[in-house]
Amino acid sequence: MFFPNDVDRVLISEDEIKQKVSEMGKRLTEEYSGKNPLFLCVLRGASVFFADLIRSVECPLEIDFIRTSSYVGTNSSGNVFVEENIPDIQGRDVVVVEDIVDTARTLSKLKTLLLGEKPRSLKFAVLLDKPSRREAEEDFKADFMGFKIEDLFVVGYGLDFNGKYRNLPYVGVLKS
Ligand code: IMP
Ligand code: MG
Predict the structure, then answer these.
(1) Which residues form ligand 1's pocket by a CB distance below 6 Å?
(2) 0.90 cut: is pTM over it?
(3) Which of 94, 133, 140, 176 has its CA 20 to 30 A from that of 113?
């Protein structure tokens, strides 16, 4: 298994991720049966999770992409940028797929922006949650959540540090 020097340990194994994604897929399948949801991938961190998750959802769906950025190194810059145009989601059942909720600034901002586009419904599927990092004013809660983790900087399965480690098949803790 690819195990770079900068990674301290595996936090969530490939098997644990597979199991969780399959459970989340089942719940999403129940929730959206008879509908034609639009799954919106938050680039770039959610790309790996997104690719696995949509294949575990057994109902017709469409996909689109949105790009946000806020992090510089291991610190949130405090500003959230939504790059490129927001796709047309008016009247759609939208599921936003994100890798991790940290301070929740990104998803709170995205939620406000997307609600302004008048979707029929808007839900959030997120792989990882760091609840201890939540800022007082952000009480964001994902509708479909994978794992709660401690306040550690993690990489792999789409998550990066300065653009690296997205291709690790597990979620690992970066050496400090
Ligand atoms: P938030 O706006 O503070 O919730 O930050 C969300 C974004 O920060 C995520 O979409 C990730 O791109 C990035 N992020 C937060 N924590 C981590 C981490 O532990 N590893 C890698 N990226 C992270
Ligand atoms: Mg992200």
Answers:
(1) 45, 70-71, 76, 80, 98-106, 153-155, 159
(2) yes
(3) 133
